[in-house]
Design goal:
Strand content: 15-25%
Oligomer: single chain
CATH superfamily: Glutaredoxin
Largest sheet: 5 strands, mixed
Number of helices: 8
Number of strands: 9
Length: 185
């Protein structure tokens, strides 16, 4: 695991090929990325955790508009560094009904170039003020987080569109997703 700062993350670019990956969702289902691509485009969304005051409303809004995303032939998966106990909290807070993959060793986040280790001040803010308890919530002591990015991947495995902003408060809107899915349809 690299120890990048948020400034060193660039995210995959439009046109980049996404390496295949496997993860386990909240229901212990194995999710193989290449299998999803055989069926449709895939929207991959990274979120920090159930403690994040921006992530939870974002996922809730996503849940409310899933029908519109599915209308344009896309599957949605969500990726987090948080363990199952915290994924369960996310499910309660958002009622989201898509696969949430626990990225136990940050391999998916690294494939997409969104994994970073926050500095001391941010760690303090997340752990003390927001009660994230990152060391307990994740697979190791690094407190690694993702840039909360969103990617649309075509069936050829290439990035069709992305929203990547190091400012955690700026997220891809459902309207942006639908617009880009519609144009790629």
């Amino acid at each position: 695991m690299s120890k990048k700062s948020v400034k060193e993350c660039n995210g995959l670019s439009v046109g980049d090929l996404v390496k295949d990956f496997m993860g386990e969702d909240q229901n212990s289902n194995k999710i193989l990325f290449s299998e999803l691509l055989k069926e449709s485009k895939v929207v991959v969304i990274f979120y920090r955790g159930q403690w994040c005051p921006v992530c939870m409303p974002h996922l809730k809004k996503l849940q409310n508009d899933l029908v519109n995303i599915y209308k344009y032939g896309a599957k949605v998966i969500v990726v987090t560094p948080e363990n199952q106990q915290n994924i369960d909290k996310t499910l309660v807070k958002t009622s989201i009904e898509v696969p949430i993959i626990y990225d136990k060793n940050y391999k998916i986040m690294e494939i997409f170039d969104v994994a970073f280790v926050p500095g001391k001040i941010l760690k303090w803010m997340y752990n003390v003020m927001l009660r994230a308890n990152l060391k307990r919530a994740q697979s190791d002591q690094s407190e690694t987080l993702p840039v909360p990015a969103t990617f649309i991947i075509g069936q050829n495995g290439r990035v069709l569109w992305r929203h990547f902003d190091r400012n955690y408060s700026k997220r891809a809107s459902v309207e942006d997703l639908i617009h880009h899915l519609k144009n790629e349809h």
